[in-house]
Structure formats: C-alpha cells, structure tokens
Amino acid sequence: MSRTNTTAPQLAPYAQVKQHLKGELARGRYPPGALMPSEAELVAQFGVSRMTVNRALRELQSEGLVDRVQGVGTFAAQLHRVASTLTIHDLHDEIAQRGHVHQAVVHVSRKEKAPAALAARLGLEAGAPVFHTLIVHHENGIAIQCEDRYVNPSCAPGYLDVDFTQTTPTHYLLEVAPYWKAQYSIEADLPSAEEAKLLGIRRSDPCLIVVRRTEHRDSPITIARLVHPGSRYLLEGAFAP
C-alpha cells in the first residue's frame, strides 16, 4: 500500500533566517528600536553565508519590520512605521492634505458588554467590557464617513477619555497601540437605516464599506466598520511596473 508523503517542504536558508527573526519580533523579543543580532552572529547561528543572512534582512527591511544602518547594525522598527507600510491613513490628514476642513460628530462613546461574536474577534470573553464609538466624519460640512468602532480596553485603556472632535480614533490608536498586522474587507453595499440617517443619504444609496481589524502582535486592538457614501467617496491608487 502506498503512503502519501505529507512532510512539509523545507524553507530555503534565507527564509529560515527571516522566519526566525520575524517570529522573535512578533513575540516581543526585540522591542522597537532594539539592536538585533549582527550578520556575523546570524551566520554563526544558522551556519549559512553572509549573503543568505543579508537577503533575509533586506526582505525584513522592505516589509518595514527592521531598520538597517550601515556600519552600525539592524534595529527593530518602530511599530508606527510598520503601520505606515500597511497604508492605513488618518482621515483628518487626508482631508487636510486636500486643503479642506475636517469635522467629527461623536454620536456614541461608551463602554458596553461585548456580544459573543464580537468578543471572539477581539480576543475577549463573551460579555466582557468593550469600548464603542460611533463617529461621523465631515469634509467641508458634508458627511463622508460613518465610523462604527469597537476597541479592546486592554490595548487602549484611555480610549473613552479622548476628545474625538479634536483627534481621530485612528490617530490616537496609532500612538498608544501601534498595530503589527491588519485585516480588511471592502465591498459595495447599502447602508443600514441608522447609517443612512447619520450620513444624510437615502437607504437605497450604495456605499463603499470597509471593515478593518488590527492587532498588536497577538492581541486584537480594534474592529471598525467604515461606511462611505458612494457618490461622495473615491478610492484610488497608482501602479507602476
């Protein structure tokens, strides 16, 4: 009787070095700004060439996870810089860059008990406290985004004390709980009745809806549902070969 070989393929030497260092960073072995092992130390530890180690470090640098200073060494990147490579931007900054005025109206800011489904996504027990904000962002007086956000209190204990008419949740969370990774989905759909009312649109008006979840290493930080009226929002980017 034949037997299927289920042994996982071995990683290339540079990938082994990269995976090891990435795991150490994720576990907090090297806090932001900490000096990491030298190329010579990694060569000796893994028994590989300096070129192999150099490739692993280059790829970590391109992913925003480390900083390399020639003649000095390799350092764990500041987490807010990791966040910037994921292109999560502060809405206030985007509006200001267009030369327009941002205004935020806070409709909900309170502590609630997390339902089971939400608690699971935030790494909490069902019924555990969770912070909830509901904010409508305006550009030159026109509502362009309804932000419905839940925050893990252990990641940002002072969240509800912040005046979100003066700063955005995104800006605050990037300062106090820089994220290690993010997941998001984007779809075109209709707003809920409450969202339509808050945005001043019809229930039948299509919207661009982004649901985003961020984590600080292995601890979920926040889940946000961002609803943008389709007629008032443009998602664009650029590509060059």
What's the arrangement of secondary structure elements?
Blueprint: H1 13-26, H2 39-46, H3 50-62, E1 66-69, E2 73-76, H4 79-85, H5 91-97, E3 102-113, H6 116-121, E4 129-139, E5 142-151, H7 169-176, E6 181-189, H8 193-199, E7 207-216, E8 219-229
Antiparallel strand pairs: 1-2, 3-4, 4-5, 5-8, 6-7, 7-8
What do these coordinates show?
This protein is α+β, with helices and mostly antiparallel strands. The protein has 2 domains: 13-77, Orthogonal Bundle (Arc Repressor Mutant, subunit A); 85-232, Chorismate lyase-like (Chorismate lyase), CATH 3.40.1410. The protein has helices spanning 13-26, 39-46, 50-62, 79-85, 91-97, 116-121, 169-176, 193-199; strands at 66-69, 73-76, 102-113, 129-139, 142-151, 181-189, 207-216, 219-229. The strands form 2 sheets. A 6-stranded antiparallel sheet has the order 3-4-5-8-7-6. α1 packs across α3 and α2 packs across α3 (50-62).
